[in-house]
Amino acid sequence: MSQRTISKQExxxxxxxxxxxxxxxxxxxxxxxxxxxxxxxIEDKFKNLIHEELQLGSTVSYVGxxxxxxxxxxxxxxxxxxxxxxxxxRRFEANSGDxxxxxxxxxxxxxxxxxxxxxxxxxxxxxxxxYFISKTLPLFLVLKENELKEIWxxxxxxxxxxxxxxxxxxxxIMKVAFDKETLLTLxxxxxxxxxxxxxxxxxxxFLFFSILEECSxxxxxxQFLRLTRNKTTSNPVDAMSRKIAQIEEDVHRMKxxxxxxxxxxxxxxxxxxxxxxxxxxxxxxxxxxIIITSPPYANxxxxxxxxxxxxxxxxxxxxxxxxxxxxGILRSHIESKIRKDEAPPHPVIKEVVELLExxxxxxxxxxxxxxxxxxxxxxxxxxxxxxxxPGAKVAMVVDNVRFEGELIPVDLVLSEMAEEAGxxxxxxxxxxxxxxxxxxxxxYGRVPVRESIVIWER
Length: 458
Hints:
- This protein is an alpha/beta fold and 458 residues long.
- The chain has helices at residues 17-27, 38-46, 82-91, 109-116, 128-136, 147-161, 180-194, 200-215, 236-256, 303-306, 308-315, 319-326, 347-357, 366-387, 410-421, 438-444, and strands at 50-52, 100-102, 121-125, 218-221, 224-227, 270-273, 290-293, 393-399, 401-403, 406-408, 424-434, 449-457.
- Strands 1-11-12-8-7-2-3-6 form an 8-stranded mixed β-sheet. The protein has a two-stranded antiparallel ribbon with strand order 4-5.
- A hairpin with a 2-residue loop joins strand 4 (218-221) and strand 5.
- Helix 8 crosses helix 9 (236-256) and helix 14 runs parallel beside helix 15.
């Protein structure tokens, strides 16, 4: 596993000396809240269950997948690492008799790792690109050497002869993300891929999505796609050729492993396009015994913007359809809509929302987003308790957040909600401490913010 490079804007990982210094700051801070604050009460309640395992800092992010075969191909930046999943499968003493569930499947790391360990799994996601990626990823394990290379060699001449595929060109980002020649080539490449039979159609579409960022003037950075006009972009055919070469290298590497993971029907994951706020229509083979997951963080990030290029090339026909997805996913972003009858579902959230409503915010919708996020997560936790087997274990990565100086202990609030649903909170593991924006530090000081793994048992 490669050592993560730390920049000023990146979170500090547990393997870096700066992280240790940052961690020490919080241990010397007597209190972050007023004595009568619900936040101080909940910190006191769970303090004996909180402990640090800062070596996990590099596994709660996508960085840990950069050398893992197949997982390195598509940059799903919100994913956690393969090693994180295998670690917690080991901690939970999982075996082939277990049934692993990831209700926020993302790129499918939980199911992929479970499959390589011979453990059946099931995944679910409401974002179409995430559902597609996590459903397609296991197909790479059944490829033969040189298989994709031969198909790609035959496909290249078809690209220029193909009609340009229809894409959602009315979405603003699509009007500026590519130069005209690159966009035309990508649309023709997409059409050529559409003619491939299963499963190669999905595999090549996966690779197509993986090159969009490098062929565009955009970068997945923060809340939105960052547009950089002077960015050097890649030729789509060259970019696809490089991805094919990486896949061929990975197929070869997998064949050299002492224990080549055998993909059987029993361990091939089931992946559903669905919403974990309502699991009533999901056909589980049996009650799941383990959840390993990470929900969207309450950090204003809008996945329909981050993954807009992928969505516009395949999953939506126009801007209206994109907005329908935006307003249908978990309400963790700033455009989340709140109903008049909805109120903060927890004393901590009520306190923070009331404090923020009295401040001058850079976006007045932040209190509504915080409220709807925790309303949705309360529904999520209740649904999990309904479907899990007795004794089932949950490992969930969550990120505490800070808005206008007000810290929200997300890990503790969700843990108390879990208790109310019927779970037992076993431990809260601090994987790393993250910094604050320069604006927040200048105005309110520097406060370490936990990124934690909450462990619950049904």
